[in-house]
Amino acid sequence: MKQMFQTAGEYCQLMARVFRRPEKWTIFWRQFWIESQKLIIASIPLLIIISASVGAVIVIQTASNLESPFIPKYYVGVMARESLVLEFCSTMIALILAGKMGSSIASEIGSMRITEQIDAMEIMGVNSANFLILPKICSATIFSPLLMLMSFFIGLCGGAVLISLTGIITLGQYADGLQFAFRSWYIFYSMIKMGLFCFLITSFASYYGYYAKGGSLGVGKSSTQAIVISSTLILIFDLILTKLLL
After folding, report:
1. How many CB atoms lie within 10 A of CB 117?
2. Which of 111, 151, 183, 239 yields a CA-CA distance of 20 to 30 A from 24?
3. For the CA atoms of 5, 10, 11, 12, what is the dihedral angle to 10 degrees?
4. Mutual orientation of helices 128-166 and 185-210 as an angle, nearest 10°?
């Protein structure tokens, strides 16, 4: 319990230092676009492969289980759309990013802490927390909803490609299912979740990297802790947001 309160206090103190006005906006925006490249754009290939595969698998599983003649075939499209937009494209993608993005951030900042680069920044009067962490949090939080939209679109396309190759149902039935009883709020709900999840990933990964100690083993431990805590918080906040927003 003591360790939990200590961690919460250190995290809040770090975030108070992070969310201060940058000393030079030109440097902030330069770092912002660099982090966007490293955290968001670099994640796109993995996102494409996973989303397309999962979209195709959902279509196969749904079509294979619709054996009753009383259930219209377009429900395959309905189930693919709802499964992707409500959970997979936000929660599952965020859990995947917690491993990729979280370990990268914790390792990068942890290595700088171990090699005393952060101490050197502090001696020079630089707010190291603001300089290192704020661009990461801002870029991931702002652009991650676009990753969710991309994952949703690619997942639907993956299902369509599978249908065109196998003929499980017709593309017309699939398209009718995608449009049936569509609620646009689900898109915004999933984008809100994705933005919050990526904030949790980047902020906690930065925290564990910033306070890393113990040499290279400490960096590895901080990366592991960042992934575990981020994944746990994603699941907790998924439950909270689902209750509040749906």
Report:
1. 13
2. 111
3. 90
4. 140
Q: How far apart are the first and last CA of the chain?
A: 33
**What is the tens place of the pLDDT at every residue in 80-123?**
999 999 999 999 999 999 999 999 999 999 999 999 999 999 99
What's the distance, CA 8 to chain centroid?
A: 22
Query: Rounded distance, CA 3 to CA 70, Å?
Result: 57
Note the pLDDT tens digit of each residue in 69-90. Answer: 778 888 999 999 999 999 999 9
Q: Which amino acid is at 7?
A: T
Name, in order, each residue with C-beta under 8 angstroms of 128's C-beta and a sequence gap of 6 or more.
118, 121, 122
Distance CA 77, CA 120 (A): 56
CA distances from 47 to 53, 144, 203, 206 (A): 10, 12, 21, 23
Q: What does the alpha-carbon distance between residue 83 and residue 169 come to, in Å, rounded to a whole number?
A: 18
What global pTM score does this model have?
0.94
Burial 201-219 (b: 16+ CB within 10 A, else e): bbbbbbbbbbbbeeeeebb
Helices marked H in the chain — which ranges? 2-18, 25-35, 44-65, 75-83, 93-114, 117-123, 128-166, 171-179, 185-210, 215-245
22 touches 122 (CB < 8 A): no
Contacts of 124 (CB under 8 A, 6+ apart): none
